[in-house]
């Protein structure tokens, strides 16, 4: 990644370092399309009267952004060797915490603050999507519809970028197709259709503790009009949905993690992971690899998990005692506090807004209670591991650099040791960027993963006492 100065004939030294590449005319043309669409969208937000409710405006602006982005990515990646591009990444203002990264971070963070606390301010943007929202959900568009639409668009566009960048790697192609499918189908279109049919949406890919309200006792589940108490529009789907949430949280999580590790959810299904693996990919090298960050991560993510478990128990006890424990509004207050600090502030504002400053998995690494549970199963009770062929390692450090979870993969590779870390989301990028084929993601037999795996419960108890082996 160093820049080289060379003497060409008698001319003054030419800079032929990684930052030398400038966009081609075609790339500039595609960028202009993205710029035009973005200007239209900004106008819609700040001067809604410009477009009013013109039916052509939304398809035009989002079409320009989508075609321009895909075209730009295709012209940039299409003719190059597939795989990781180290060129200039630490000279880029956006990819290495420069002024552009700060500007992007502030812009995304501001968007989230407005979305969560002043959603009506986005009316100019979401009213343009009204015809589409009416067709899909049977209701007018609101700021959440706009958010879901933009989120899905980003996953699809940057998923296309992953296809181009890792077109040589089957695992990356299938995994990317999977997160695109789950985001578009199960996190955007299906909830919209359910809302139209049953006047109630539902997200099959989220369950307790990531979506705790599906299993909490108050109105959403067992109150008047709740999922257990009442059928929706004559369809007996409420109970099925509660059962689905419980089966996924208590059954699928341990069973699927036993077979595949936490990657089945974090890198293949989850919407937060989907955004991180697509839109967040350009920032994955920014994750903190220090020992200090690893220590903080363990306290922080398990702290959130303990909080959500206590919180769930408390709300059920409160309900069982006729809401005497917390008072009649106590459940509501607790729920709103959790939603404000954990769901909104942590997962949205910090989790996505800080991509350009702290990497793409801030929420998954430090805060997600679902990742905490999956991580405990993966570490102690799973067949998944990344095996390392230490003799082949040339210590280039690509794997550590591009691990979005801040794992120092190289240090394991140098020792020829299995990687069974709780935080590993199984994205497989470390293996994809290794020039020597040292790393392999495997679901082998349970034995031989880590010292003491013959007695996983003892290893788990040791870890709780602060004596983890890895
Ligand atoms: S160790 Fe490899 S597979 Fe695991 S999170 Fe890091 S880059 Fe992804
Ligand atoms: S495992 Fe591969 S990518 Fe990592 S340091 Fe060794 S050779 Fe480089």
How would you characterize the overall build of this protein?
This protein has helices at residues 25-46, 57-77, 99-117, 123-126, 130-137, 143-165, 170-198, 218-222, 238-260, 263-266, 271-278, 291-320, 330-353, 355-358, 362-366, 369-380, 398-401, 409-415, 429-433, 456-464; strands spanning 5-6, 14-15, 384-388, 439-443. Residues 1-19 have low confidence and may be disordered. By secondary structure, the protein is an all-alpha fold. Helix 7 crosses helix 11 (271-278). The chain is globular, with a radius of gyration of 24 Å. The chain starts with a strand and ends in a 6-residue tail after the last helix. The longest helix has 30 residues, at 291-320. Among the domains are: 25-80 and 118-199, no CATH class; 383-464, Alpha-Beta Plaits. The protein is built from 20 helices and four strands. The structure holds iron/sulfur cluster (2 copies).
């Amino acid at each position: 990644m160093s820049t080289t100065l060379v003497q060409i004939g008698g001319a003054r030294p030419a800079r032929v370092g990684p930052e030398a590449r400038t966009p081609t005319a075609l790339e500039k043309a595609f960028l202009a399309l993205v710029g035009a669409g973005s200007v239209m969208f900004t106008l819609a937000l700040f001067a809604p009267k410009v477009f009013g409710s013109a039916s052509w405006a939304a398809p035009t602006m989002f079409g320009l952004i989508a075609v321009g982005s895909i075209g730009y990515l295709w012209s940039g990646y299409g003719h190059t060797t597939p795989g990781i591009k180290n060129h200039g990444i630490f000279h880029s203002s956006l990819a290495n915490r420069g002024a552009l990264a700060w500007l992007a971070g502030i812009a995304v963070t501001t968007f989230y603050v407005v979305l969560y606390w002043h959603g009506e301010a986005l009316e100019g943007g979401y009213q343009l999507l009204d015809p589409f929202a009416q067709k899909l959900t049977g209701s007018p568009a609101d700021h959440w519809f706009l958010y879901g639409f933009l989120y899905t668009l980003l996953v699809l566009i940057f998923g296309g970028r992953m296809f181009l960048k890792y077109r040589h790697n089957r695992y990356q192609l299938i995994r990317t197709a999977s997160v695109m499918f789950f985001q578009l189908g199960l996190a955007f279109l299906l909830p919209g259709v359910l809302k139209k049919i049953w006047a109630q949406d539902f997200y099959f890919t989220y369950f307790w503790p990531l979506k705790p309200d599906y299993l909490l006792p108050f109105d959403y589940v067992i109150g008047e009009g709740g999922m257990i108490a009442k059928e929706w529009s004559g369809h007996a789907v409420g109970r099925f949905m509660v059962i689905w949430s419980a089966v996924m949280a208590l059954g699928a999580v341990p069973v699927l993690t036993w077979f595949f590790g936490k990657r089945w959810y974090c890198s293949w299904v989850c919407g937060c992971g989907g955004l991180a693996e697509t839109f967040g990919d350009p920032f994955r090298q920014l994750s903190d690899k220090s020992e200090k960050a690893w220590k903080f991560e363990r306290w922080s993510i398990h702290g959130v998990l303990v909080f959500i478990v206590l919180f769930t128990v408390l709300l059920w006890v409160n309900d069982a005692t006729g809401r005497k424990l917390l008072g009649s509004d106590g459940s509501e207050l607790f729920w709103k506090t959790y939603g404000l600090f954990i769901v909104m502030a942590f997962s949205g504002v910090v989790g996505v807004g800080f991509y350009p400053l702290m990497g793409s998995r801030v929420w998954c690494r430090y805060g997600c209670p679902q990742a905490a549970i999956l991580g405990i199963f993966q570490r102690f009770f799973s067949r998944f591991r990344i095996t390392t062929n230490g003799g082949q390692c040339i210590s280039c450090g690509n794997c550590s650099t591009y691990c979005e979870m801040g794992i120092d993969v190289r240090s394991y590779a140098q020792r020829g040791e299995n990687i069974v870390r709780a935080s590993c989301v199984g994205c497989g990028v470390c293996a994809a960027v290794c020039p020597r084929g040292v790393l392999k993601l495997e679901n082998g037999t349970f034995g031989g993963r880590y010292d003491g795996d013959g007695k996983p419960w003892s290893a788990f108890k040791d870890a709780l006492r602060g004596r983890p082996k890895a």
